[in-house]
Amino acid sequence: MPPGVRSADALRFRAAPGWLPRGQRVYAIGDIHGCKVELAALHNAIAADLAARPIASALLVHLGDYIDHGPASAGVIDLLSAGPPIPNVATINLRGDHEHMFLLALEGDRAAGTDWMWSGGHSTLRSLGVPTSLPRELWAATMRPSRVAFLRNLSWWHREGNYLFVHAGIRPGIPLAKQEKDDLLTIRQPFLFTEQDFGFVVVHGHSTNPAPVVTANRIGIDTGAGQGGMLTCAVLEEDRVAFLIS
C-alpha cells in the first residue's frame, strides 16, 4: 500500500450490515479535519485498490469536516475543489458541521462564529492566510472565492444501494425527506443509541471513536483525524466492508 496507509488494516473484509449491487463499490472517507497528507495517502491507496481489483462502478464519498484542528485545511479544500482526486472515479463531497459553522460565520452569524472558533477555527484561519485578529466581517473578503464556493456547494447526504451517507446521522422515527439539516450535521445520542431499522444503513462520521464502529444500522468512520487519531476509509462492496486507515 502507499506510504502512510497501514497495510495490516487494509482490505480485511467482514460482513456488512448493508449491501450494494454487484459491480458497484463505494469508498467513504470520514472526518478529515485538515489532514491533507493522510487524505492524499488514502486516495493513493484507493487508486491502488482499483488497479488491483477493477470494478464496473466506483464512487468516492467524503463525509464532511474538511477543516479545523489539523494543519492543512486550505490544502484539503484545494485538493477536493480541483475535481475528482482519483481519475475516472465519481466523487461526492458532503457537508459537515464545521463547514456549516464556518459558512454561517461568514454570513454574519456571530454565535456560529464563536462556536466555530471554539471548535478549531483558529487553525483554519491560519491555513487560509487570514489573521485571527482580523474582524469577522472582513474574513470573506480575504479568502479565495473558489474555496468559499466549494464549501457552499457541498451536498447534505447521498444514497447508494441500501446505504445512506451523511455527516452525523439522522433522527430516529423521522422520514429522510423531513430530517432537519441540523440533525444531519450534529446529531449524536438519539441516533447512536437506537437499534431502529431505518430501512437503510447509515454511513457517518462526526462521532469520534478510536476504530470504526459497525452495528446493524450504521457504520461510523470518524476515527479522530486531526485530533490525535487516524483517517479512515470504508470500502463497501456487495454485502461486505473493509477499512483503509491512514
Order of helices and strands: EEHEHEHHHEEHHEEEEE
What is the CATH fold-level name?
Purple Acid Phosphatase, chain A, domain 2
Overall domain count? 1
- CATH top level? Alpha Beta
Helix content: 25-40%
The secondary-structure class comes to alpha/beta
Shape: globular
Quaternary state reads single chain
CATH homologous superfamily identity: Metallo-dependent phosphatases
What is the name of the CATH architecture?
Answer: 4-Layer Sandwich
Mean pLDDT: 94
Strand content: 15-25%
Rg on CA atoms, Å: 17 Å
Structural account:
By secondary structure, the protein is an alpha/beta fold. The chain has a single domain, classed as Purple Acid Phosphatase, chain A, domain 2 (4-Layer Sandwich). It has seven helices and eleven strands. A six-stranded mixed sheet has the order 1-11-10-2-3-4, with helices on one face. A five-stranded mixed sheet has the order 5-6-7-9-8, with no helix packed on it. Strand 2, helix 1 and strand 3 form a beta-alpha-beta unit. Helix 3 packs across helix 4. The longest helix is centred in the middle third of the chain and has 19 residues. The mean pLDDT is 94.
